[in-house]
Amino acid sequence: MPIQTENLHIDALRLLPAPADLATLLPRDQAISRTVSDSRAAIRAILSGADHRLLVIVGPCSIHDPDAALDYAAHLARERHRLSDRLEIVMRTYFEKPRTTVGWKGLINDPHLDGSDRIEDGLPAARRLLLEINRLGLPTATEFLDPILPQYFADLIAWGAIGARTTESQIHRQLASGLSCPVGFKNGTDGGVQVALDAIRSAAGAHSFPAITAEGRAAIASTTGNHACHLVLRGGHDGPNYSPAHIESISLAAAQTGIDPGIVIDASHANSGKDPARQPAVIADIATRISAGENRIRGVMLESNLVAGRQDPVAGQPPIYGQSITDGCLGWDDTQALLRRLAEVAQSRQPLAA
């Protein structure tokens, strides 16, 4: 009897549709394509300093209820339209959640919130929601975690993030080098920034690595490099890392490696002590500095939802509508006030000299 050496810990293998098949089932139209393309171009211009506006990535910590997310998107789309001359507002639509140990892994992995891990249901749910949000004229942002899944929805994403846990990963740097959207690398969980600056340089280069095609075939992807990668500051173990001294030292380190970091500040996570109610104070500090002429900060991130705070799902009970089941978020009224404050300070900004 042959000795089995493969799949010793695999309980089951379920087939997924090819990315092209899902895109055929749930296609984007010209208007959606224009929303994605125009926002990517605007983000690149803001990150380079050519556009005086501020980039604002704002939305739920994670999406668990597509209906509530679309409701939130309708509110945000109105603010985007109202403030578009000063802000490039992009909705945070995070479908994958990195876990330190175990926990809910996001809408794609567990769309039914019951541990059934029906990824075959989660992927179409995520793509359908992205289509609906972009159809409102509101571009979307997400964190890329699994290197295979972007083939299913990256055509609908205007801005992507590589998280603090994966910024150092060669696989994710290679992935970013081939993505069509601007990509923000977060500093490491310890607060260290050099790892993200190294990632930006790496992702700007050409790479070849294993991937899948739109038809679901194994292939080698050869990339030309992504020159719209930049730095996202999210704090670290020692606390916030967006002070004037931090910005100065980061800018010097970036200059020594020959890059413009295009700094985006995440007002949540360690920069707010993981307290969502402190995000307005972070934004107030940033706004004051921008008003005083700070032009190295090109954007901000906010965790926001219809209802403030967070909740733990309870078996047999529906979650509170519009409230996060992962990190706590600001409520809508506070979010709207912050967006309008950011628009006020962005009005005085000038494009950097060519």
From TrEMBL:
<comment type="pathway">
    <text>Metabolic intermediate biosynthesis; chorismate biosynthesis; chorismate from D-erythrose 4-phosphate and phosphoenolpyruvate: step 1/7.</text>
</comment>
<dbReference type="GO" id="GO:0042802">
    <property type="term" value="F:identical protein binding"/>
</dbReference>
<protein>
    <recommendedName>
        <fullName>Phospho-2-dehydro-3-deoxyheptonate aldolase</fullName>
        <ecNumber>2.5.1.54</ecNumber>
    </recommendedName>
</protein>
<dbReference type="GO" id="GO:0009423">
    <property type="term" value="P:chorismate biosynthetic process"/>
</dbReference>
<dbReference type="GO" id="GO:0008652">
    <property type="term" value="P:amino acid biosynthetic process"/>
</dbReference>
<feature type="domain" description="DAHP synthetase I/KDSA">
    <location>
        <begin position="45"/>
        <end position="339"/>
    </location>
</feature>
<dbReference type="InterPro" id="IPR006219">
    <property type="entry name" value="DAHP_synth_1"/>
</dbReference>
<dbReference type="Pfam" id="PF00793">
    <property type="entry name" value="DAHP_synth_1"/>
</dbReference>
<comment type="similarity">
    <text>Belongs to the class-I DAHP synthase family.</text>
</comment>
<keyword id="KW-0028">Amino-acid biosynthesis</keyword>
<dbReference type="GO" id="GO:0003849">
    <property type="term" value="F:3-deoxy-7-phosphoheptulonate synthase activity"/>
</dbReference>
<comment type="function">
    <text>Stereospecific condensation of phosphoenolpyruvate (PEP) and D-erythrose-4-phosphate (E4P) giving rise to 3-deoxy-D-arabino-heptulosonate-7-phosphate (DAHP).</text>
</comment>
<dbReference type="GO" id="GO:0005737">
    <property type="term" value="C:cytoplasm"/>
</dbReference>
<dbReference type="InterPro" id="IPR013785">
    <property type="entry name" value="Aldolase_TIM"/>
</dbReference>
<dbReference type="InterPro" id="IPR006218">
    <property type="entry name" value="DAHP1/KDSA"/>
</dbReference>
<keyword id="KW-0057">Aromatic amino acid biosynthesis</keyword>
<keyword id="KW-0808">Transferase</keyword>
<dbReference type="GO" id="GO:0009073">
    <property type="term" value="P:aromatic amino acid family biosynthetic process"/>
</dbReference>
